[in-house]
Amino acid sequence: MGTILPMDLFPDTAAVEHGHLAVAGVPASTLAEEHGTPLLVLCEATIRARARAYREAAPDALVVYGTKAFPNVSVMRLLAEEGLGADVSTLGELRFAQRAGIGGDVLVVHGNNKDDAELAEAAAADALVVLDALDEVERAAAAGVGRTLVRMTLGVEAETHEAIRTGQHGSKFGLPPEQALEVIERARPLGLHVHIGSQLLDGGAARLTVDRLAEFAAQCRERLGWTPEVVDLGGGLGVRTSPDEPGPPSIADFVRELLAQLGSAWALHDLPRPRLILEPGRSIVGPSGVTLYRVGVVKHVSESVAWVAVDGGMSDNPRPQLYGARYTALLANRADEAAAGTYRIAGKHCESGDVLIDRVELPEPCRGDLLAVPATGAYTLAMASNYNGVPRPAAVLVGNGSARVIRQRESVDELLARET
Hints:
8-stranded parallel barrel, single chain, elongated, 12 helices, TIM Barrel, alpha/beta, 9-stranded mixed β-sheet, Lyase, Ornithine Decarboxylase, Chain A, domain 1, 420 residues
């Protein structure tokens, strides 16, 4: 019954060896035994390859990693080696970037509610600051910020979950065109910033955004005598997390279409071509990640419903609850076995909605089996919580047959140490 899960959802180096899943030559069962579960496993080769794909597709652009996808010093050092900077939105994310050795010349600072301390630290780092509100013009100047962009909304509704749309009218992010014009007149920023949302599976909305941005830039020239030197098109390229989902365009195709649209739209309005900034996050780290869980209770509660409970859930991956995200899985220790039935994968938390995977075909699971969920490198551990007093998992980076811990597992004692 059923077929073995295709490996294209797993990192580039993933393979089934002697019936066991391995990543970068390291068996998943070895990783689980040495580091415990739940465990986020990140493939170094996959991260590097996807960072290089952006650099090769847009060699003249500044590519900055969207830190919020997974803030981690080791990952950010690796990306810096590949020529990427960082996009940060809080003082905490700024500190991650600085610890990774990323300089202000390749730092972009965001935030819809930046406080004075964050503006001051951005100024001290000589980072590029994205103005997101009218009052930030004077506050950024008072903090000593020297380089700015203005973020705007152009009314483009991306085809993605409403919670991760950001470019529509009424968004909490950015400014509508008339207010953006006011900021430009007062601040004379280097350029414009737009970001329409996350988990984009086609380039249509992004191309429409470029067209509208060119129209706005032409309006700025006519009304203010100003044209942008820099255009930041944000990030948002999605990743496939389930076999029944459509695949997004490749990084090369997505960027090539953006560059072509930028060139034609700017030429249509006879505008000087700006320098481009891109802010990928999910599309770099998402496909590099596999989360390993240990199977516990297996319940056949009716003829049609069989539950498999694992030792994690919504505390280490809240995306199914927040965005209706769909994942798939295989039994890492029995990866070459054909499926014997359909199962629902539940977490261990006190919520009926703590369902990690609504439907997946597996061999008959047993207590102690190892469940591997692919495409979990982004917005999982980054959004983790301690719900039900559950410590957050560890993360390891694997490459060339070895693994190293890049984020320590929390302990219950560490949680209690914060109590007073």
